[in-house]
UniProtKB/TrEMBL annotation, chain A:
Coiled coil: none
GO MF, one annotated term: ATP binding
Membrane topology: Peripheral membrane protein
Protein name: ATP-binding cassette domain-containing protein
Pfam families: ABC_tran
Database matches in Gene3D superfamilies: P-loop containing nucleotide triphosphate hydrolases
InterPro entries with a match to the protein in the record: AAA+_ATPase (IPR003593), ABC_transporter-like_ATP-bd (IPR003439), ABC_transporter-like_CS (IPR017871), ABC_transporter_ATP-binding (IPR050763), P-loop_NTPase (IPR027417)
UniProt cross-references to PANTHER family, sorted A to Z: ABC TRANSPORTER ATP-BINDING PROTEIN, ABC TRANSPORTER ATP-BINDING PROTEIN NATA
Major site of localization recorded for this protein: membrane
TrEMBL record, chain B:
Organism for this UniProt entry: Streptomyces cylindrosporus
Entry's transmembrane regions: 96-114, 147-166, 172-197, 209-230, 257-279
Keywords: Antibiotic resistance, Cell membrane, Membrane, Transmembrane, Transmembrane helix, Transport
Record-linked PANTHER family: NODULATION PROTEIN J
Protein family according to the UniProt entry: Belongs to the ABC-2 integral membrane protein family.
Protein name per the record: Transport permease protein
Segments forming domain ABC transmembrane type-2: 55-282
Length: 283, 284
């Protein structure tokens, strides 16, 4: 699929980022089309979060490697940030503020005028079904409600690109579905592009238009979930597997792409601690 | 293509109904208006948190109250420290106000490390807020928090009979001094946070520098009674300038208020520069 780079929501060309001697992202080429839900999949330590942090301008990368709606993240950082809504992996709502105050902070830092601030904050809270709980402290919210509050914080500035880093980590299945339902509803209403990282293959299969399977800093397979599953099915049949066997899942595709070595490379101590801490807080 | 997205319970015929404003990005603030807007945003958050939970405000009032009640009243009787003719408790009250404000600000770096661990810092860094504006906002938010604490200590001092001024202009000057001083100390703390990167190490540093800053200043005794080397430390210590200004404004003693304001403003500006340049280390 070829598109003009200016019409791409995200375009990464040979993106590389190292922490010391560890190449967290190692030559990542990625294009996310405007309006799609793109899933970046992989285990802890695959480089998903580092890639996201490069795209969001949190990590400095040389000019020409990352563009967001045509803006270079190295040269035009502020313009890129104005286009982004970002929900990090950790539970990042401030527990000491109410839901409304949490969203109002992001309205302020995105320069929403005082005249329309209250209304815009109310609309963001409505979009995620938190109107009734808006004036309660965030520390009284359930894990799913906090994720929805963070979604409202990201939506209040009307971003063109919503970036979600492991949005459903640690949530129970019902809360996970709730978060995705709201993401889809907002996407349907606004037409925004969604870039999401997850290691839940079932979620990616159900909710993403296209996925990129990432392993050891690079995309190892790219396509719609159906294309990837069917591709593996065909390869298995070509290799002599009996027709009518169980259909491959995205997880099967991932295992084929990643091969062995998943366990010993699945994130360092800090990754695992951060993941467990988040899971503990939402649980 | 994947399965169709699950229909949301809130979806209606017009999915954009009720969220019209979320379809239009806000108008960016230009140039010089950005910095005050970010400072106001950070200060508003600090005041909202204090409104929801005042526990810290009360517990932090205990220590300055004890300094004034026990140390102040005892040393007033001893008359061992030359105070220029005013009661010792009056002399030390501005020092204790400055100390309680500094104690809040000096541990502000722990908050920014906590915000880093919680993802709040990263989220703020992805907003159209330059790092210097974010640090300035945090510094003045620390100033506002310290100011609320300083008001509590002023009230305690007044209740203990300290002869403070009630001139509104001078009190405004006191507020400005406390905010500037706290902005510097919070930036010092955030600078160290950017170097050591962990809460445990920062706690150690905070405790290691707090007492030297306090005892190496004119908070409890005049510079003239210090040995030469400590006088040099006191001259380089922004807390001394903060106390000098507070003493001049609150008690009407001889002070170099203009110089004090100048030193505190330059110190705060240098602190903001240093902390901003190290903020990127916390984001990694």
């Amino acid at each position: 699929m070829t598109r003009d780079a200016n019409t791409q929501a995200v375009s990464c060309t040979g993106l590389a980022y190292s922490f010391g001697e560890t190449n967290a992202v190692d030559g990542l080429d990625l294009s996310v089309a405007e309006g799609e839900v793109f899933g970046l999949l992989g285990p802890n330590g695959a480089g998903k979060t580092t890639a996201i942090r490069c795209i969001t301008t949190l990590l400095p990368v040389p000019a020409g490697m990352v563009r967001v709606f045509g803006h270079d993240t190295a040269r035009d950082r502020m313009a890129v940030r104005r286009l982004l809504g970002y929900v990090p992996q950790q539970l990042s709502a401030d527990a000491g503020l109410t839901g409304r105050e949490n969203v109002a902070l992001f309205a302020r830092v995105f320069d929403v005028s005082r005249r329309e601030r209250d209304e815009r904050v109310a609309q963001a809270l409505t979009a995620v079904d938190l109107t009734d709980a808006a004036d309660r402290l965030a520390k009284t919210y359930s894990g799913g409600m906090i994720r929805r509050l963070e979604l409202a914080q990201a939506l209040v500035s009307a971003p063109r690109l919503l970036i979600l880093d492991e949005p459903t980590i640690g949530l129970d299945p019902i809360a996970r579905t709730g978060v995705w339902e709201h993401i889809n509803a907002v996407r349907a209403a606004t037409g925004m592009t969604v870039l999401v990282t997850t290691h839940y293959m079932d979620e990616a299969d159900q909710y993403c238009d296209r996925v990129g399977l990432m392993h050891r800093g690079r995309i190892r397979a790219l396509g719609t979930p159906a294309e990837l599953r069917e591709g593996l099915g065909e390869r298995r049949r070509a290799a002599g597997a009996a027709a009518g066997g169980p259909l491959p899942t995205l997880e099967d595709v991932f295992r084929e792409v990643a091969g062995s070595g998943l366990d010993d490379k699945s994130g360092d101590f800090r990754d695992v601690r951060s993941t467990r801490r988040t899971a503990n807080r939402v649980g | 293509m994947s399965e169709a997205p699950v229909a949301p319970p809130t979806a209606s015929a017009d999915p954009a109904a009720g969220i019209a404003l979320l379809l239009r990005p806000p108008e960016p603030r230009a140039g010089w208006r950005l910095l005050p807007a970010r400072v106001v945003a950070m200060c508003a958050v600090e005041l909202q948190k204090l409104r929801h939970d005042r526990t810290e405000l009360y517990t932090r009032a205990v220590q300055p109250a004890l300094w004034l009640l026990i140390f102040g009243q005892t040393f007033t009787r001893i008359r061992a420290i030359p105070t220029g003719g005013i009661p010792y408790i009056d002399y030390m009250a501005p020092g204790i106000i400055a100390q309680s404000a500094m104690f809040i600000a000096i541990f502000y770096g722990i908050q920014i490390i906590w915000e880093r661990d919680a993802g709040i810092l990263n989220k703020l860094l992805v907003t159209p807020t330059p790092r210097s504006a974010l640090i300035t906002g945090k510094a003045f938010a620390a100033g506002i928090k310290s100011l609320v604490q300083a008001i509590v200590v002023v009230v305690i001092a007044a209740l203990l009979g300290v002869a403070l001024t009630w001139n509104p202009l001078k009190l405004l000057g006191v507020a400005a001094v406390v905010v500037l001083g706290s902005a510097f100390f919070s930036c010092l703390s955030m600078t160290i946070a950017g170097i050591v990167l962990s809460r445990d190490r920062l706690m150690g540093f905070g405790q290691a520098i707090t007492m030297p800053l306090f005892f190496g200043s004119n908070a409890l005794y005049p510079v003239s009674v210090m040995p030469g080397w400590l006088q040099a430390v006191s001259k380089a210590n922004p807390l001394s300038y903060e106390v000098d200004a507070l003493r001049g404004l609150l008690l009407g003693t001889h002070a170099h208020v203009a110089l004090d304001f100048g030193v505190l403003a330059v110190a705060a500006a240098l602190g903001i520069t240093a902390a901003s340049s190290l903020l990127g280390r916390l984001a990694r």
